[in-house]
Write the structure tokens for this entry.
Amino acid sequence: MTEIITIDGPSASGKTSVAQRVAQHLGIPYISSGLLYRAVALMCLLENVSAEEVETRLAKHRLELQPTPTQNLVFLDGREVSKALHSLEVDQIVSAVAVRPAIREYVNQVLRQIPPPFVVDGRDMGSAVFPQARYKFYLTASPEVRAQRRVPERGAAFDTVLTEIIRRDEADKRQSDPARDAIILDTSHLDLDGVVQRVLEHIHP
Ligand code: C5P
């Protein structure tokens, strides 16, 4: 397998878990592109600056993503920050960071340096970053189903998580259209194994 497989979808659609499992099955790395946007959002929090301001400071920082078979490690200026990337605080500002073209270009450059094969998840992996990918998937599910899945990870109330998901869907709309050649899978009534199986049915290494 020498290919790039893209798995896009809205927040909490299960794309990272699916990407992880598909990659494991194929024996190749997986990459979660959202982590890089989250790391830039973390820069804003650490330095107490706006998304606009952080854009001018990107060149001063070193951002690296290291795929391991079980997880992605993110290093900011040599310090491992992976565990700090999934807080509600980061959720709340990451879209304002991700909407800025110069930040998207910065993240895309980091991604395009990673040698294939890999499975990559995000919003625009199949449509914009890796349009040449041979296999493209787009996962969907209702906001309520996605919120239900995310509650245990965030340790917050269902309503708080649902409001945050709906807000982020709106804020991420611009970069979230499925690639025209992506296979669309509605995961609302499927468990993780079910989605992984559907994806693998389409892949012929
Ligand atoms: O995938 P995840 O929910 O971790 O992504 C966090 C945020 O990063 C998204 O809400 C979106 O603003 C941004 N993102 C993006 N394009 C990607 C991946 C993530 O704009 N390819």
